[in-house]
Fold this protein.
Amino acid sequence: MFVLANNLEEIKPKSLEENHIDIFTAQTLDDALIFKSEWEQLIQNSKRKNIYADPDFFFHVFESRHKNTNPHIVLFKKGNKPIALLVGVGLKYNVPCWLGYLNIKTPALRCLDIENGGLITDGSKEAHDILSEYLDSLLKNKQIDLLLVDHLSSLDPLWETVANGLNSGNRTIYRKGIEWIDQLRDIDTGEVIDKHKHRTRVNFRRKDKKLLKFFNEEVQLKEFSSVNDAKVFLTKAAFIGKKSYQHTIGVDVKNDLQWQQLLESFSKGNYFRGYILCAQNNPIAYAFGLAYKDIFYLYATAYDPQYRKIGPGGYLIRRLIERMTKNNFNYFHFGYGDADFKRLHGTDSHEEATFRIYGKTKRAKYSKFVDLVTTSTTEEFSKLMDDFGLLNKVKKLWRIHMESKNN
């Protein structure tokens, strides 16, 4: 476990004193609870909805999401007014670096991992500058080896600042991703948004009929949300997951202690929603997500590849969108990364990235070098494949190949 220094007087930016800004740090959940009202106030003023930066969600699931770590919450106040908040986690972290199938080992780094949506301000330039200067001071004064900023949205006011290395000459390493969202209802009128053309809707009905006919209409979508439900869901989802492509890359749902604790904490907070698509009483696809205010977050999904030709994955996604619409959700968040089904159903997308900014220690410099080499090589190879129109074809063939190894 890595804990940042409690006494930050020597390293905090001089601008804090010059502008009469007080800084308060919490490195336990109990201490962080003291900031909860200011935390909520800043989120409300920012008008942003992000489950991962919500204090109730953070406190509810911290111990199950962040093993062997400690919170690092920093509140900045000017007088009695909160102007900025940093929500992060201190941990020891080995940067994963791959060159093809070769995993290049990197040393364990003292890392401050900023939570998704965890840079919260009142919108002022002063608050943006203060967050940037504070993070930069941690790196310059060797309090941390690595700053990770998880899934920062390109819509975030701090996107350019972080991408430019906190405007202090730091080199930032990242690969841009994409975030897809489906707006289900008009926010002003509450009317359901009909986004698909007639031909697309006809095609959906044809695909649905094909799957139903194959299983003699014996198809059922089961929903799970309670703590006891979560245990049943994990058993069925893990059975499907072991056969899937997701299993080969380690992102499938597993019936192990870590997943059991994670889903238990989600369930206790009433966030968990699990879905199993059953055909003739056999599980053939699953989806797991989180319900937060008027947003449904799709967290993980997979299907049994032996039924690939009748499209259980697509059938499940269509049923989920229908159900979330019926349950008065306004948004369906597809998670991170691009996919055909996300482009098909999504109404909006924007870039996102997880940024890595390294410090000045020897181990940080070594990891930075390895990270730069592997990241740039992977990007160039992917670009070359894409230029020749081969990237998506190779991905599809690789997926089919890996699925066949699981069956």
